[in-house]
Design brief:
mainly alpha
Length: about 100
């Protein structure tokens, strides 16, 4: 069975970079949500904000790997990514269905 190096420094830098990107994206969509209150576009923006939130939680779940093991941490990571993609799909369907 291959061994995986758990270098917390690289994981921390990766998480901080992702946090910065997610913060910029959240800022843009929260400003857009104020402009497009209600309606189909407003609802789609809500789903996009939820998607970014789930992606952020999925990346934070990588910090569970040293504590609870690779299998648990990565499983939580994948489940949260699936939730994020589901929110993205629902938001897109709401936008294009009308």
């Amino acid at each position: 069975m291959p061994s995986i190096s758990l270098d917390l420094t690289s994981i921390s830098l990766f998480a901080l970079l992702n946090l910065a990107v997610y913060a910029v994206i959240m800022f843009v969509f929260i400003k857009a949500r104020r402009k497009y209150k209600g309606g189909v576009v407003g609802k789609s923006i809500q789903f996009l904000i939820a998607t970014i939130g789930f992606f952020l939680l999925a990346d934070i779940a990588l910090f569970l790997i040293p504590v609870s093991g690779l299998q648990v941490g990565y499983t939580i990571h994948v489940v949260l990514k699936i939730c994020a993609l589901t929110c993205l799909a629902i938001g897109g369907l709401n936008l294009f269905a009308r």
